[in-house]
Design brief:
Helices cover about 40% and strands about 25% of the residues. It starts with 5 loop residues before the first strand and ends with a helix.
Length: about 280
Amino acid sequence: MRGTALIELAAPPLPYYLESGLAEYRPGDRHPNRADFGVFDLLLGVNGTLHIGENGREWRLGEGDVLILLPRGYHYAVKPCEEETSFWWLHFGHPDWREIADPADAELPVREAPFDRPKAVRLPKHVRLPDPQPAFDIFRRLAALPIGDAFWERQELFFRLLDLIGRGRNGDAATPAARVAERAARLLQRHYREDITSASLAGRLHYHPSYIVRCMKQVYGVTPARYLLRYRIEQAKRLLVSTGWPVERIADETGFRYAPHFSACFKRLTGMTPVEYRRRYWR
């Protein structure tokens, strides 16, 4: 099973921790079969091998393997454990999610509210952590907390665990692709009012344009041009509901040369013209 699929959690809101624990299986034991469990079931292998499937896909989880089972669908034991096997499990919830089979083709959904940001928490469906010890330590700390207390500490530890898993997707938090993508995103946000081309972006970052595109798609799921357009539209949405400026000025303030082009892009992404969008929130 390739570990390329992603689970995308729209943010806001953030995912929330429910419960966790350590499961210890003897030879012949198996993971329970569940249909439409209702929450995410995150598994982290400690020792032995857990044979588990979901909706026709199957995995063998060993030490350091992470698998996130979905709230909907059917997950089941492929076969009983053949040796002493243990794994940490954690249940968490989130109301707005999707599974992405090919991350390179993924794009964040359009948000309607004017102060939403097009962000998402993206986690690998299945990944082997290069160093699982920090994740083991987090689970042990969660297990040591008193029952019914320490709500915020549990959430903090949970977020740190998700961060470790998200970083494990590329094997290292500071991969060259991630560094290039983050630099490109910061530059685009800082200079979104300017006329930015692929050539000018490449000149500032000192990388070939096609390499920057690959890095942005790998990390953010979109090309630099698409990222810039979405960012400009988000800034325009804020100005439409927080100022009385005419559409022409808002277009100019957000990096569009011509108001008609701005209006066309705005409607394509939001389903409304800038004027219709403003009327929706102004009374």
